[in-house]
Each structure stands twice: as structure tokens, then as C-alpha cells.
Amino acid sequence: MGDVGIRKKAPIGGKERKGLALTTCPECGSTNIVVDYERGEILCGDCGFVLSSSIMSRRPEWRAFTPQEQRERTRVGLPTSYSIHDKGLSTVISNIYRDASGRKLPLKTRIKMLRLRRWQIRSKVYSSRSRNLSRAMNEIDRLASQLNVPPQLQEMAALVYRKALEKDLVRGRSIAAIAAASLYAICRQTGTPRTLKEIAKVSMVSRKEIARCYRLLLKKLDITMPIDDPAKCVPKIASKLSISEECRQTAIEILKKAQKARVATGKHPMGLAATALYMACKITGERRTQREIADAADVTEVTIRNRYNDLKAFLPS
Domains in the chain, start-ordered, CATH in brackets? Predict the structure, then answer.
């Protein structure tokens, strides 16, 4: 559009003929018509005459630099989702059986729609891969719902499962175990405090089996895990016991000092967080027993006593 000169507005009151495409400039007769979606205008590329100034862009929303961004920023349709077995691309025949005006469909039409709906549901999960994904996505959704895991992490866990399925890691193993391991891997990777014990508690498989599948995913999918930060576990434990903010901050300070001294390396983050909170409660005068904190953190009292010896050197003076 660099050759466009002076921009002239169409005269007020001038009406375009309805149903006629704007292909010719009424000012100079040129057919060099330019559509400027950013300004919402159709103008002549030769004389700059504005033929229309109120067009609607049907192109993707915003700028997109990758094909994925282009798909995500389209104006119409729901975004694709990895947490749905068909990524949300299929259509669904409704079971309301009413027309556009809200009137009930005739009996013959309702029977026909019921039959079509039944076959449509069957065709969606016809292949073994589709059935596998359908079961796995439902399981991940169930686990995420019970553990209050955000939808973004659920999407990431679904993507991990899909990669495992592509590499044939699910064959001979439990779908529920791989699904639970995928969710646990994402929780650990993003620093979300969800322990293996918590996931196993709401899952249909044992903790041992989930741990085995988790190690398999790390090895075969080359997933790298960051070092666990026990300070992220403090708010979770403290909220269960209604511990004050002052006590939380004291516990976090103790853990930061321990991490600098590399005392926390290789220790269970939830156990360290529980011990730091127990020490902070003693400092701030909040009465909390070892058993109360251990139950809230889902660790044993022995763990707190053992970690206490590791952290007592970092008590505020």
C-alpha cells in the first residue's frame, strides 16, 4: 500500500449498491482495489479514494508468527484441546431434539436423530487409539478435578500422555497408571505441590505402579525435572492449619538458609516444609503439635524430628 497517495473519503450520503462487489474505483475507474484490515477500509490503490470504511475482518485475530498461534487466534470455533481425545474437533448431535425455534421435533425425526446420535458416538471412539485416548483423557480430567489442578496443567499432562502413546509406552501397562504418572510429572515440572501419595490416593492404581510409570516417562520422553523447592509447599500446609502469615514467612526464611547451605539437597520437600513450619510455630508462639503438622503435610512425625536436626542450625538468632 506504499503507492497510495492522498486518502479521500467517500462523500456523505453516497450509498453503495447492495450486493455489488467493490471492484472498481468510482473516482478514477481503477481496478487496483486494496483492502486494509488494520483500518477496516477498502480503498483505491491508485488515487487513495476510500470506497468503504466499515469492513469486518474475518482473518485470524492479532498477529501470528507460528502455525500454532494462527490456529489459536482464529475468530470462530472453540480452540483445540489436548485434554479431549479428538482435540475438540468433532461435532456433537444434541439430545435436546428441538428445532431452531424451540419447538419439539416430530417423533419420526426424533427417532432418526437418536439413531444418528448413537452412531456418531460410536464412530468417535471406533479405533483402539481413540478408545485409549478417551479413557486416558477422562482419567486425567478426573484426577485433575479431585486434586484441584489448573486446566493449563491438565492440558500439559494430556500432551505428555499423547507422546507416551505415540512411543508405544502404554502397551502392556495400565492406562490409569500412565495417566496418573503424566499428571504427576507435570506437577513436579511446574513446581505444583502435589505429591505422589496424594495422586495415588485418588487414582485407581498403586503408588508403586505410578512411580514405575513416572520413571519410564522421564527416561523415554527425556523429561527433565527442576530441583524441588520446599518453600512452595509451605502455603499448602499452612492453609490447612490456619497458620499466620508471619509464621509462614519465618518458615520460608529457614528453608532459604538451608538451601543456600545445600542442606535441603536430596531431602523430601514436603518433610522439610513441615519441619520449617513446626520450627516457625515455636518461634512465633503458635501452638501446633508435630502430629498436627505431620498430618497436614502427609508425612510422619519421625520425618519432622529427623529434619529438625538438619534445620536447627538455621533458626533465626
Answer: 86-124 (no CATH), 128-220 (1.10.472.10), 230-314 (1.10.472.10)
